[in-house]
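Appendix C reproduces, verbatim, an entry submitted by the partner laboratory led by Prof. M.T., so that reviewers can inspect both the input and the predicted structure.
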Amino acid sequence: MQWSQIKTLFILCFLVLDIYLLVQFIDKQDRAAQEQYPGGEDLTLQEELEREDISLGDIDVGVEKDSSISVLPMDYTDKQVGEIESLENQEAILNTEDLIVGHMDKPIPIAEDAGGEEISNIISNFIYQFDSYQFWKWDKDLNVLLFFQEKENQPIYYNQNALLLVYLNEDNEMEYYTQSMLGEATGTNESSKRTLIQPIQAIGTLYNNNELVSEDTVDVDYGYHTWISSLENGKQVFAPTYKVSVNDERDYFVNAIEGQVFSNSDESFTRDMVRENLGDIQLIPQDVDWKEDMINKLRTLTQTETETETNRSE
């Protein structure tokens, strides 16, 4: 065999080998990417969840593209202040320019077993622009109802400037409430929207972080979470966010654009907001006859919560 033919044969062999190794490398990279960022059609993650006996509930949020939103605090007009002060069955005060504090003339009863929809229907006529709030939970330890304000028809999770707290008395009657509101949102035009990671990817992130265990059931909802908390003029920026609920007992919040997990402040949030409200109510004019009673009520709640935390730690 001539040397030229041998050389050609060697070149072809090395070429085939190089192609084979390149294909193997690309395949390995693809598998690694799928494991780290599993797509909606990825079976590997779903099979792994099934193998771990982790069930997927409702994870279709119906949103594929979105953008962060920028929101300024509510700038109340004289007309809005008049509407707040004329709400029925109560005395409502706009305190420190951004917090509405209300006292019911006649407390409104809430059934012990009432769900979110029933509760919302009961109190809707007594809250300013209540349609822009969504029921979150009934904190039984403090006997406080939590509602989150919505923007772009989605809730803003755990933000003190977009929050309604309803304080119930010992008979589960609505007696006091505090309400904060954000103004109009900007930054949601079509050109600024980006393709979101898929809900299954958010679940995969939690699974890889060992936040999911055998027999868990996972559901996904959609909303916004604080991204940048304070800019010029009090503006805040909120990121599109997946709320991943596990067994309807604990929630995780995953940035739906970048994939990182937001810190979960659920356990301390209500307590912190009650304390914030206590400080704000100190600023109510002295001639308001229910001011001291509300202060005493909130002081009792903060003391009760402190005792509860102490007992848990023991």
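The mean pLDDT is 86. Additional entries are available on request from the coordinating office.
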